[in-house]
Amino acid sequence: MKGFASLFGSVPDPRAANVRHPLNSILFIALAAVLCGAETCQDMADFGVSKRKLLKEIIPLPYGVPSHDVFSNVFRHL
User: Looking at the predicted structure, is the pLDDT value of residue 4 above 70?
Assistant: First the structure.
C-alpha cells in the first residue's frame, strides 16, 4: 500500500469531510477489481466483498468494503 499511496496520495479527495471510506482504499479496490475484469461500480463492490479478508490485510477498511454507491460517487466527482 505504501507504493500505491505514494502514487495516488496526491489525488485530492473531492468528497465532503464526513466520509467513512479512505480515498486510497477506494482507489486501490477499484484498480485491483479492474485488473481482474471489473467493468462497473457494482463489479468493484462485489470484488471487494469477495476479497474482503485479503484486502483488510493490505488497506484500511474501518467501515467494511465500500458499496457500489460509494464507488460511483467517487468516480463521478473525480
Answer: yes
DSSP characters over 7-64: HHTTS---S-TT-SS-HHHHHHHHHHHHHTT--SHHHHHHHHHHTHHHHHHHS--BTB
Question: pLDDT tens-digit profile of 14-47?
Answer: 888 889 999 999 999 999 999 999 999 999 999 9
Show me where the domains of the chain are located: 21-77
For the chain, how long is the longest CA-to-CA vector? 31
Burial of residue 18 (number of CB atoms within 10 Å: 0-12, 13-18, 19+): exposed
Q: Enter the C-alpha cell of residue 41.
A: 461500480
Q: Which H or E run contains 72?
A: helix 68-77
Work out the pLDDT band at 1, boundaries 50, 70, 90: low
